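Handout, section B. The chain below has 190 residues.
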Amino acid sequence: MSTRKPTAEEAANFLKNVPEEWQAFWCNHGTVLRNYADLSAALADMTPEEFAHHVNGEKNDFAEWTAQVFGDKTLADKLRLLSTPEASQRMVARRIEELTLAARPVDAAPVEAAIAERAEAAQEAPAAIAQEVVSPLPAEKPSKKAVKKPSARAKKTVAAKKAVASPAPKTAAAKPAGKKESVWSKLLKR
């Protein structure tokens, strides 16, 4: 049994109507089949007796028709294994779906455009990140490095000098009303 996937051209040919009237399949109940869709519909409506006329231990007319007229050995091999109209109809329907997908031409333009867009975005992203890192801060915001804060040792030295120079009274009246005592004032009081 062949498992090779058909090319788009082969799939399209399998799905076409038979090229000549004499190649059509004539069912014993009067239905004329010209393509796989006709075969699927006929199998869905076929009685077991009508099916047995075409498929039995001696022959499988549907498998022979698909192999000889269409050249579809894959479907023919699968149909030879089946013995009911329902199973045969499902197999033909699956083959139609498979061939329909294979026959669709793939439009490469949208895929190529999406790939190019992603590549362009990937190239622009590092440049944008680098620009953000290199660009200076706005002028209205002063740089944090420009403002020097005194070290802890310098703070203690300044506080000690102030305490020695002018000892402040340690009373509650010395605090201004309504203001919290700052860390600097606490250090000065020590």
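Note. The mean pLDDT is 75. Compare this with the example in section A.
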